[in-house]
Amino acid sequence: MTAQYAVGIDLGTTNSALAWCRLGDEQPRIELLSLPQLVAAGTIEERGLLPSFAYLGTEADAKAKNFDVPWEKKRDYAVGELARRQAAEVPTRTVAAAKSWLAHSRVDRHQPILPWNAPADVAKISPVVASTRYLEHLAAAWRAAFRDAPLAEQVVVLTVPASFDAAARELTREAALAAGLPENLVLLEEPQAAVYAWLNDEGERWRRQVNVDDTLLVCDVGGGTTDFTLVGVAGEQGELVLRRLAVGNHILVGGDNMDLTLAHHVAGAFAQKGVQLDPWQSVALWHSCRAAKEALLTPDGPKKHPVAVLGRGSKLIKGTVSVDVERESAATLLVDGFFPQCALSDDPAKRRASGFTEIGLPFETDTAITRHLAAFLRAHGQGSAVRPTHVLFNGGVFKAVALRERLMQVLAGWFTGEPPHGLQGNRDLDFAVARGAAYYGFAKQGKGVRIRGGTARSYYVGIESAGLAIPGATRPLRALCVVPFGMEEGAETDVPSDEIGLVVGEPAHFRFFSSPVRKDDQPGTLLSTWTDDQLAETDPLVATLPADEGIEEGYAPVRFHSKITELGMFELWCHSTVGDHRWKLEFSVREDDARD
Q1: Measured distance CA(190)–CA(445) in Å, rounded
Q2: Which residue of 189, 287, 394, 503 is most buried, as measured by CB atoms within 10 A?
Q3: Phi, psi of 434 (to 5 degrees)
Q4: In the chain, domain spans
Q5: pTM higher than 0.85
Q6: How far apart are CA 67 and CA 93, in angstroms?
């Protein structure tokens, strides 16, 4: 059936949202979908955002129908506002930051591991299942509002961090399909979605704000992650066009870190009152400080905000204890802690790791977002740091004026001459990504501006070197470039190389690497050594390729042929050099349309 709507979904670390527009209109008129959700046991209200939290209840909750919603009865879990509130009261049963776990390759994202470190009596769920539940809730809200337009038949755009690798994107897509989203859904980078929201806000006025050779820096700081993206402005046939130039690494620093920082500060205030918080109260305090931060950093926020946690002893009056957090002290703590003044030459600080460490999310040790930004701009410059001419803020963190102002001050100090300009638009940062995704769905029909760019990374396959075996040592691995940075959809190329032995007829372990910084490597470039900040290994692919007739000794001599399809699929073809045999390895690399 013909799609009627473009639907944009922001599956956020802290909050999720859905926006839509009619495809038949000449210009996109983007609307937000109200999301009914539990705000207390048995109480449903409509909100603009769905907090990305899942509370795992008990059999008693299901029997009492505490978490029933119109589309599902006797449910033993809740998502949304009620779950977010439960995070402060019962943190051991509340799943948070599931999206960040999707990108954590050192754990099995399909296994029930969340809430992390929950007691044995809690029936945990996987990051994929948690993400599925959030998307199922959004899909149910859509069905209630648009009964004659099934979501599976619309143009659906789901956003992901620009730094998500192919595995994290595929896991996101898996959750989406399980929630009933269409097979042909589009995955779009969140920073690009922020730019599309700006384009929609400005209309044709955007062309008067930028000029040819300008560079837009998108700073996206959300609840759990920080992403940087560079978008260039070029001229083609007298028209301005936008091209994505670079994306940064997946940086696990965001609003959650700020909440924890504020909680540490408040814990000190409790200690001055003679109140020592136990581990349970400390986790609850972390979640309570989220509301305090959001209230204190808003432009018209109060001068102070009370923070309370439930008591754990009979000596606490009415079972709670609280302190007031001053607006000025909170702002200073967060501005200087996360956006300190630094030099453009500064690197993020790295601490020596302990010999033993708890397995969990690989959070950054340096919370200074300005130092991470300095490293990003240097990494993508041609001999010097990239100088942005404009800055577009995205993410709920930047609702705080003090944080935006500090980042602009730091950028102005790094470069001589005219400082970067802040772009207008995206006035409501909570909904910018969802709105931009809906705009992109509309633009895909040929009715709007689209950002160009091809692949945001170079891609490599790991080739094991031949040689004598050494006890206890693996053979050296080389990385062969098969897709260059910026390879466009619809392009294909032969990969120059010597013959490569392809293992067939038995399970084989294929290793892949990517790089957002090695932009000059061409197909056939062979790397013998590299550093971790140059190449990052993605999840490996284990597959058994058929042994065609005439292939001996379990391997076939091949050469590679790479192709980026019109749908954004990376196809790596292995062509036999001794016969008419060929095999295909396929996975998604495109930041727009990701498929298996």
Answers
A1: 20
A2: 189
A3: -65, -40
A4: 255-338, 458-588
A5: no
A6: 14
Buried b (16+ CB within 10 A) or exposed e, 185-211: bbbbbbbbbbbbbbbbbbeeebeebbe
DSSP states of 105-118: TTS-TTS--BSTT-
Measured CA to CA, the distance from residue 98 to residue 125 in angstroms comes to: 10
CB atoms near residue 520 (< 10 Å)? 11
The span from the CA of 554 to the CA of 502, in Å, is 8
Structure tokens at 286: 């972390």
- DSSP letter for each residue of 164-206: --HHHHHHHHHHHHHTT--TT-EEEEHHHHHHHHHHHHHGGGH
Cis upstream peptide for 115 (omega within 30°): yes
- Residue 498 burial (C-beta neighbours within 10 Å; 0-12, 13-18, 19+): exposed
| Distance (Å, whole) CA 190 – CA 218 | 10
Q: For the chain, first and last CA: distance in Å?
A: 23
Fold classified for 255-338:
Actin; Chain A, domain 4 (3.90.640)
Residue 512 CB neighbours (<10 A): 23
Report whether 358 contacts 161 (CB < 8 A).
no
- Give the residue from 145, 148, 150 showing the smallest Cα distance to 36: 145
In terms of Cβ atoms closer than 10 Å to its own Cβ (0-12, 13-18, 19+), residue 452 is middle
pLDDT tens readout for residues 355-406: 544 556 667 789 999 999 999 999 998 778 999 999 999 988 898 888 999 9
**Per the structure block, which two tokens stand in for 400?**
């705080």
**For 245-285, what is each residue's pLDDT tens digit?**
888 887 888 888 898 899 888 888 888 878 777 766 776 78
560, 539 contact by CB (below 8 A): no
Burial of 432 (0-12, 13-18, 19+ CB in 10 A): buried
CA 98 to chain centre: 11
Q: What is the 3-state secondary structure (H, E, C) of 432-501?
A: HHHHHHHHHHHHHHHHCCCEECCCCCEEEEEEECCCCCECCECCCEEEEEEECCCCCCCCEEEEEEEEEE
Type and span of the H or E element at 508: strand 507-510
Residues of the chain with pLDDT under 70: 1, 279-280, 283, 310-319, 351-362, 425-427, 467-470, 472-473, 540-543, 548-553, 565-569, 586-596
- What's the CA gap between 158 and 17, in Å, rounded? 10
Inter-helix orientation angle 127-145/166-178, to 10°: 50
Structure token pair of residue 514:
């990517």
Rounded CA-CA distance 152/144 in Å is 14
